[in-house]
Amino acid sequence: MWGSNSGLNVSVPDNETRRERQASAKVTSARTRCYVPLMTFGTRTDNTFMIKMMALAIGGIALVGCSSSSTSAPPTTTLPSASALYAKRYCEVALLEPTGSGAATISVYTSFPMSDCPEAKWKALDAAALAKENGVPLAVLNGPRYWAIDSVIKNFAGKKVTTSFGGITMNKGATVSVDIASIGAPYVPRAVDRKASFTFEQGRQVSELTAPDGSVYLMQSWSQQLDPTLSASDLPGLAARLTLPQGWSYTTRKLKDPLVIDSTSKAAMVLQDDLGNSYSLNTAG
Question: How many CA within 13 A on the CB side of residue 36?
Answer without folding.
Answer: 7
